[in-house]
Each structure stands twice: as structure tokens, then as C-alpha cells.
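seq as requested:
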Amino acid sequence: MKLETEYDLENEYDVEVTQCTACNHRSARATASSPARFPGLVSEHQWQCMVMEWAELQSPKMPELKLLFAVPNGGHRHKAVAMKLKKEGVKRGVPDLCLPVARHGYHGLFIEMKSAKGRLSVHQQKWADSLHQQDYLVYVCNDAESAIMRIKRYLINEGPCEFTF
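C-alpha cells:
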């Protein structure tokens, strides 16, 4: 996946628009000269897409990465779709990514992606605490680079970083 960047020169503010070429999701980011009322953030969606693309590209070297998957429990949905998913077992607060590979005394790794200003909900905190009690490692990552670093450290012999929830 590539992120394409364009600048809106007709806008009175300098706003950088980034588009995920895999799914066409667009997000705007204020540049240094634009007013503070525009959030200067890359979306959680974009970070997560970058992590998943990295995992796909690295899976020939690290086959365990083929087991990394996303949990589709976030986002805004039509009420009927949300009710259907709830009946199927989708639960609020489950972390975004799961790597069901045992390492370093843990049964697996969960990652909750957050934007720079994102905060855990009460449901997310409860899930993280419960997963940790069941010997799963859980991290909150604010960008693709930190998520990738934690996955790599988990899979290789360096061992996990400290519990961060």
C-alpha cells in the first residue's frame, strides 16, 4: 500500500490530503502553516494498513506474520449491521490486531492502534487487562513504526517490551 499525498492549493489553508491506495480512505493533515483547528494526524486506519502491508511483505522471512489479523470491531456502521455483528460475537473494546503466536511465556500478541491523540475507552482498558491476566501481551501503538517494532521484538529472541496498557 502506498500513501499518496497532495496539497490543496485552492484552499485558504495548507492541508495535506493523504489517500490509502489499497482502500481509497482519505485523511487530511494540517501542515505547519495551517491553523491549529485542523488535526495534524494520520488516521488509525492508515497506521493499521501500513502495519498489515509490512506484515504481508515480511511474511516470507517471518512466516508467523501470515497469522496476523485485524479484528473488525471499530468504525461507524448502520444500526442493522451493528446488531448483526453483535449477534455474531463482535465485542466492544477488543484490540485492533491479533498475532496468535506463542512467545516468551505469552499465548499471543494484541495491538490497539491509536492516533497520536487517541485514548483508550473503558471497554478497551478492560479487554487489555483481561487479556494480560490470561497471559497475552497487549500494546497500544500510536503509529505503524512502533507497532512494527513491537511485533518484530515479540517474534525474535529479544523478548517483549514492558506491558504498556
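The domain at 42-155 is CATH 3.40.1350.10 (Trna Endonuclease; Chain: A, domain 1).
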